[in-house]
Task: structure prediction
Amino acid sequence: MKLNGLNSLRGLKDLVYPVLCYQCGELEANGYYLCQQCFDAFKKVGDDGENFCASCSEPFEGRFSENPTCRNCNTLDYSFEFGRSALKNSDTARALVHDFKYRKQRHLAGVLADFCQQAMEMDERITNLLETSKDETVIVPVPLHWRRHLYRGFNQAELISKVLAEQLGIRHMKLIKRKRYTTTQTRLARHERLKNLKDAFSIHRKHSGKDDFKQVILIDDVFTTGSTSEACASLLKKDYAKVENIVVVTVLRG
Result:
C-alpha cells in the first residue's frame, strides 16, 4: 500500500522536527509515522490469500475456495452485513492500538486509517459497494460516552474515521451518541456485553430525520464479539428506514 503524501506545510515541519517510525525508530523523511517496511510487516487479515470468516473476519486455518462463515457467526443474526478487520490479533497490532488509544498517541490515527483503507480495498464487497453507491454512503464512528471522552481526551474511532473519510472522499457523520455510561467490556462474554449495552446508544438529535444515505460504514478500533457493532447497527436500522447496508470496519480483530 502506498503511504499518504503530506502537504508542504507538514513537510516543512518535519524538516525541523523529524519523524521516527513508530515500530523501528528509523528516521522517516516523508513524515509518516510508520515506514513502508514496518507497515508491510504487520500481520493482516487475508494475507497471502488466507481465509477468514465472511461475517466477522476471524482468520481460519487451512484453505478454502471462498471465505466461509465461522461456527459462531452461523448462530448469530447481525444487523450489519459483515465486519471487516484489517489486522490480526498479534502482539505488535495490540501494542499499536493500545498506544494510540491509551497513551494518547493521536498521530497514529493516520496509520490505523491506512490499515483500514487497505483492508477495504482488498475486499470486493466493499469496493463494489463504493463503486455503485459512494454518494449515498456515510462513514460513522462508534461513539464514546462523554465521561470517557473527557478522561481520554478523544474518541479513537472518530479520529480514525475522519482520516478515512477524507482519504476515500466519503461523508463523515457522527450519527450516534452514547447516552449511558457503561463499564468496560473487556472481560465480558457476548451476552453480557449485549446486556451491558442495552439502551446505551441513541441518534444525535441534529441528525434526526436526515436520511439521504443508504449505505453506512461503521468504524471502530477493535472487533471482538461484535456486540458494540450490533448495538449501533440495530439502532441505525431502526431509525433510518432507507439504510440498505451497514458494514463494520475495524483496525484489529480482537
